[in-house]
């Protein structure tokens, strides 16, 4: 059973905005840097389990690189990279939320 959403949209928006404050991410970046290999493994596992980079993705990559027009090929590849980045970022945020919950419970 999923945990109830304990954060309002407004609280999440304010928290996200606060992340833009200078130096706000310094401690988190140090912690993530220390755990990077383990976090990379978790991200890869989530991407694989979700089949985000499976056969359909490989087909889109093939189509992008086979575009005869260089401009169209460049746009298709850049679009794929942007989409991959967004998917990875969203999964990374989900992992971060679960990690934070685990740490809260251990404190």
The ordered string of helix (H) and strand (E) elements is HHHH
**Proportion of beta-strand residues:** under 5%
Mean pLDDT: 87
Per DSSP, the total helix count is 4
Description:
- The protein has 107 residues and is mostly helical.
- It is 77% helix and 0% strand.
- The protein contains 4 helices and no strands.
- The longest helix has 37 residues, at 70-106.
- The model has no long low-confidence stretch (mean pLDDT 87).
Helix and strand arrangement:
Layout: H1 9-18, H2 26-49, H3 55-65, H4 70-106
Keyword list:
single chain; 107 residues; mainly alpha; 77% helix; elongated
Brief overview, please?
This protein has 107 residues and is mainly α. The chain has four helices and no strands. Helices cover 77% and strands 0% of the residues.
């Amino acid at each position: 059973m999923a945990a109830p959403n304990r954060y309002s949209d407004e609280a999440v928006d304010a928290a996200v905005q606060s992340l833009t404050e200078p130096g706000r991410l310094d401690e988190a970046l140090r912690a993530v840097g220390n755990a990077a290999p383990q976090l990379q493994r978790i991200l890869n596992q989530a991407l694989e389990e979700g089949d985000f980079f499976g056969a359909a993705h490989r087909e889109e990559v093939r189509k992008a690189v086979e575009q005869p027009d260089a401009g169209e090929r460049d746009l298709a590849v850049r679009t794929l990279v942007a989409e991959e980045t967004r998917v990875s970022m969203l999964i990374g945020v989900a992992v971060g939320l679960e990690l934070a919950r685990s740490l809260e419970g251990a404190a």
